[in-house]
Amino acid sequence: MSGKAAEIAERIAPVLREKPLAAIVSGSGQSRLGRRLGLKPIAAMSALPHFHRPTVAGHSGEIMAGRISGAPAMLFAGRCHFYEAPEPEQVSLAVRVCAALGVPRVILLNSAGGLNAAFEPGELMLITDSVNLQFRTPPLSQPQGHERAGLNLCDMFSLELIHIAREQALQAKIRLHEGTYVAMPGPAYETRADIEMLRMASGDAVGMSTLPEAYAAHDAGLQTLAISVITNSCVRPAAETTHAEVLQNAAHAEDNLARLLRAILKKLAQ
Ligand code: HPA
Ligand 1 centre and the CA of 49: distance in Å? Predict the structure, then answer.
């Protein structure tokens, strides 16, 4: 696995120019985010070996780079989910490439359904904890479990980065909720009974991604920050999620998301 990431990193490194302080992985409906942040395309995942080109609408599959608020950064526009991956390692390949390039931190973005009734579509949630109902992990560097010490997931999301995100949101007057992200296998959206169960499992937002990448980043020693864009409410009466609604609300949230990312990267560059 690391051989594949190293091979991709070797192809990307010459066009990167400078080592990113952070790599962003964007989610559904966030394909325009990179351009909005002033980044330029440097490669297409489909033109690189081993990458499974994202097949979900709203994921462009471009790799972009440049500076955000003066900080060198890169961005993967779209991701591969477990439900579309021919091989499990492909869900975390972008993160492994970051590790091979020596990028020290990742910012994982996603679109998620709000389980917390206080969350409105178009608002943002900082992920402070997670529940993995995908019941799978991407390949990790050490076999986990039994007599071996597994990854300690309690500190998977960097407290230092959470602190920076909180502070920057406050200063920029961006409403940033905090909560627990539940990862479901997908690709179908949840039933009402699923949603009841997820709320009982202390979930504040539900999606189908992010945790495999967070596990891999933690395994590789990268700092991780994760932010959900709440694209729909799962708890309003008669709420029925469609992918079109998810894409539309993701676009609405783009303003605040771009502002928050600029502020976070500015702080990282200081
Ligand atoms: N459920 C799962 N994934 C999602 C949702 C949802 O309601 N909205 C955006 N991604």
Answer: 30
Q: 232: Cβ below 6 Å to ligand 1?
A: yes
Which stretch, 26-40, 49-63, 239-253, has highest mean pLDDT? 26-40
* Residue range of the domain that includes 177: 2-269
Give 107 Cα–ligand 1 centroid separation in angstroms: 19
Q: Residues 32, 254: contact at Cβ < 8 Å? A: yes
Which residue puts its alpha carbon closest to atom 10 of ligand 1?
A: 112
pLDDT at 12 > cutoff 80: yes
The residue whose CA has the least distance to atom 3 of ligand 1 is 207
Distance (Å, rounded) from C-alpha 263 to C-alpha 169? Answer: 8
Confirm if 82 and 52 have CB atoms less than 8 A apart.
no
Q: What is the 111 CA–ligand 1 centroid distance (Å)?
A: 7
Write the CATH number for 85.
Answer: 3.40.50.1580
Q: What does residue 45 show for φ and ψ, rounded to 5 degrees?
A: -55, -35
Cα-to-centroid distance, 197 and ligand 1 (Å): 15
Residue type, 186: G
Whether ligand 1 lies within 6 angstroms of the CB of 234 is answered as yes
Check residue 79 and give its pLDDT. Answer: 87
Nearest to 25 by CA among 188, 177, 224: 224
- The number of folded domains in the chain is 1
What is the per-residue pLDDT across 18-45, written as a single tens digit (0 to 9) for each? 999 999 999 888 888 999 999 999 999 8
Distance in angstroms (rounded) separating the CA atoms of residues 198 and 221: 29
